[in-house]
Amino acid sequence: MAKNYYIKVWFPVVVLTILANAGEYSLKDVKKAGGEVAKGVQKKLKKKLREAKKSGGLEAMAKYCAEESLKDIDAIRRKYGKELSVKRVSLRPRNPKNAPKKDEEKILEALDYLVKANAFLPKTIVQAHEDGSYKLYAPITLNSRTCKKCHGDRAAVDPKIVKYFASKYPDGKGYGYHTGDLRGAIVVAFPPPKEDE
């Protein structure tokens, strides 16, 4: 219990300290703090999906993903102040809010290439920008049979689930994934350094 409390309190402090002293990011700090933020997001989403599955099965899980997951991601982001950006992105997003920016698309394509080449997929990868900002990516692969029930081949997905997602996202592309495929990534973006006043 004490160890868990320490982690919950300490990492927001580390991230806030990095952002407050944003004149000089170190790659080590970005990897450590960004990695913990991404891990926190993944842990929260998995926990909520387990709870939804227990309370209402696949339909409750689909509803959580469509209606609540972005709120939970934003709640985690708010812990660290408005400077930090935290989101989920995918090359084939169901929700248009999860569409990647051009630079994010390139990283996702590179990660997807690694998966398809049966290469080692890193837990996180950091992208540095010329303005001094960083983006940390934590890849998400499809490894759960339950996830395939919503993201697998469209013809194999329960018609009620297909209809529900179509009502929320008429242009949704979140189907056709197989075990081990890259589904997307959690992106933690650190802003450019603050200029000395």
The outline comes out as globular
- Backbone structural class: alpha+beta
Strands across the major sheet, in which order?
1-4-3-2
Total E-strand runs: 4
Percent of residues in helices comes to 40-55%
Low-confidence stretches: 1-11
Give the C-alpha Rg.
Answer: 18 Å
| Distance N to C terminus | 42 Å
Largest sheet: 4 strands, antiparallel
- Strand content is 5-15%
Number of DSSP helices? 6
List the helices and strands and how they pair.
Layout: H1 2-20, H2 27-67, H3 69-78, E1 85-89, H4 102-116, E2 125-128, E3 134-141, H5 145-151, H6 159-168, E4 182-190
Antiparallel strand pairs: 1-4, 2-3, 3-4
Can you describe this structure?
With 197 residues, the protein is of the alpha+beta class. Helix content is 52%, strand content 13%. The chain has a four-stranded antiparallel β-sheet with strand order 1-4-3-2. Helix 2 packs antiparallel against helix 3. It is globular. The N terminus is likely disordered.
Features:
6 helices, 52% helix, 197 residues
Give the structure's gist in a few sentences.
With 197 residues, the chain is α+β, with helices and mostly antiparallel strands.
